[in-house]
Amino acid sequence: MRRTPFRRFGRAPATVAAAACLLGLLSAAPPAEPAAENTAPVAAAENTATVFYYTKTKNWSAYNLHYAPDGGAWTTVPGVAMEAACTDWVKKTVVLGSAEGLQATFNNGTGTWDNNGGGNYALGTGTITVKDGVVAHSDPCVATPTEPGNQATVYYSTAALGWTTANLHYAPAGGAWTTVPGVGMEAACTGWWKRTVDLGAATTMSAVFNNGNGVWDNNNGANYALPAGTTTVKDKVVTGNAANPCAAEVPDTQAPSVPTGVTASADGTSIVLTWEPSTDDKGVTRYQVTRTGGTAGTVVVDVASTVFSDTGLAERTAYSYTVKAVDAAGNTSAASAAAQATTGTAPPAPDPGRPLGTDPREDPIYFVLTARFHDGDTANNRGGSQHTKSGNAAAGDPMFRGDFKGLVNKLDYIKGLGFSAVWITPVVLNRSDYDYHGYHGYDFYKVDARLESAGASYQDLINAAHAKGMKIYQDVVYNHSSRWGAKGLFTPKVFGVRDSQWSWYYDEPNSSFEYDGLTVEPKSGKSYYNGDLWSTAEPTGNTCVNWGTPTQYTSPEGYRIYNCQWPNPTSGMFPKSLYHQCWIGNWEGEDSRSCWLHEDLADFDTESAAVQNHLIGAYDKYIDMGVDGFRVDTAVHIPRTTWNRRFLPAIQERVTQRFGAEAAKNFFVFGEVAAFVNDKWNRGSVNHSAQFYTWKERKEYALDDATAALEMYDYEQQLGPSGQPTSNNAFLNGNSYHTPDHSRFSGMHVIDMRMHMNFGDALNAFGNGRDSDDSYNDATYNVVYVDSHDYGPNKSSERYAGGTDAWAENMSLMWTFRGIPTLYYGSEIEFQKGRKIDCGPSCPLSTTGRAYFGDHLAGDVKASGFSMVESATGAVAQTLAQPLARHVQRLNQIRRAIPALQTGQYSTEGISGAMAYKRRWTSGTTDSFALVTVTHGAGFTGIPNGTYTDAVTGEQRVVTDGTLNVAAPGKGNLRVYVLNGPGRIGVPGPYLK
Prior knowledge:
This protein is an alpha+beta fold. It contains 15 helices and 52 strands. The strands form 13 sheets. The chain has an 8-stranded parallel beta sheet with strand order 39-38-37-32-29-28-41-40. A 6-stranded antiparallel beta sheet has the order 44-46-47-52-49-50.
């Protein structure tokens, strides 16, 4: 996905670290506890860890824990046997000595391993669970106790410390310490913080306190010994059985507390709302209930009834309720409790799919921006915050217009053109001002609601495509998130300065509202919550440097911009453990893989285990849904070592686990390694060249991923282009097909950037493609296109406008040369040719290369097979009748009928002609051999004797002397002479004749 660079600064050197491991690659050990007055608690003589492992999704006959205490040696393979714990769980308690954690993997004793996708599990002390790759701290086998354990309520005074937050880090007597920094304490009253904890059977605990930013109070290194019951700690003085220090500060006008346990259940067109009574020193007498969804309304319910029935509601509608307590004096609680319910009967969730699992080279690809292709459901259309500014409002063209329902409805159009794979833009929930394209992911675990409809979920789309024999390739982003952070990983809580200039722009924080891209935030009644929040005072815990001070810059509207107005890598707002801290300074330098591309793209530290696990877990979800492959956005901005160590093996492991080895072999991963140059290697930098990513590593690097990335970068840059591996996987041996060697394949194929850059002229693209093919692991898998949602040839910012004849010639080459032909939506009618592809919100989308295509698809279409349209009416019939649409339709027919054009190797040996080549594929009883020339005449010598039939004209030629000469067929036309071929395929059209 194309990004415009913003500020760029240098990158600090990464810290070098290394460790040894038998099976996987180890993460760095967790930081040591603080020392001295800022010291951690006194450690016990020996730490232990009780590890519980979830068995239900493994079904192994035996379970072993193979581990290494931090800083220690690994157990002997296969490790120690785990014992049955309770239903679906096994466990093992291990002694760690003084170590504060362990690295772990699991296995069945006969060679099957779970090593967290190659990253191992980093576990702490105490009770730990590992379930489907997720690590947590709890005992899954402990039944709910009939009697509660001993409780300790701790009040801690920070009046003399000036802390703005406080944490309690503790260990019940005989038990394990909490994970640093402990559990958060809640503000009790001025200068006091409070926390109640369960001690279980213990009656005392050791405790220390900290402010969450490295400042500790550990009682001068001795830790605090606190009993059960209520205790106060002030100025290092412990008072047991203490009175509530905040009792005297409760004002007579205190608002009632928030009701708890709010639930809502729906049946047909009625909802029953329940909650638990809430009381304070004055006594609550009633509750205020507010409903949003449908017609908003507010009612007051007597305290005697904590059940509220809402009837006469609309069928199949979502409603939200908030409940506030109101006391006798009319004071309403400041906060509210919320619940949601949907009336009517939800349709059953569709069954998960499974990938079709066939060779991806057999499937020509049609690429769509889902939100701009076809609108099947106007209810999920959204214009966003830039709807008016962009001109889209005046054009009646919201940016989110197309959806899965629209795509499902027009799969027959795509199939009728002959395409059997559909590449769609990212589906995850986005959160930015102009996010219709999908590359501003915010919640990677959730599908964007602006794309889904009842009966047309993402799963429905996958299943509908598979039912027609068509694949779905999902665009995925591993490099960055947007506006701001990533839900479930890290999101800044508040930023910006709200003054009279900016009050129109910023959303007011609303803790009870969860952004979903579709729902209007009820407090403002107008915003979809783009993620920009304001604060009139510096937020508690702010880490942003120079927060709120004015800069010399102004916005396009002329408003003063403040420091920290928006997050950026050097602001200090993003944790170094999860996000990179620099701008790219050199697009062919190492920093292009470890710094931010743009201010609106928060760049993940993809060498962080936490980031890796977050993304792997997210994309496992879509693999489980049955997608057929991933197109990887901005792949070049992640080190190859990280792809080869982490992400690519995780994909293979998950597909294998769910669908088997054959499905994994054909799960198609193709990366965008954006090299916008015309040379073989991107300005001589191998690390920034597309073919580089198709290879495995060829030496061992440090176990730490960040260090390994730097080592690999330096090593390969020093070797340079001449030191890179080569392959003959794409080439025939004379006239013979040979089994390709994929033993050094990384798992990622790529978009053919060099051909893309040179497609201003087909002959130029052909020559450049041939020149690069020995440097790919297997160029027959290259994804080949003329233009896309980012660029046209020669890095043009416009959709291709070379003319219809030139388009036809480009297509004839793509569909018969090595690689997988790919067409950007609408190119079959030269849609928006010459128009600027992307101008952001500065112009209407209808004037760009990302315009809405649905008007050309109006009407009905039914495909009886690939490239076979049974019926079409309305505008879509006219679209299918256009010359390039007919051309690509027949090209797909020919390619589908001749295996050599799909999976064959090629050669130009013994061939004269501008764009001429021979291709062959042999497997079992199938032997497909074809001679191809595009536009120009050609001579073929040294070929096998026999009868050749042209798939375009049906002409037969008998070769007895190993020679075949072909006259020039004309611009955009071609000849495909097939040995023992099937004859003419399809009917003559505007170019193939």
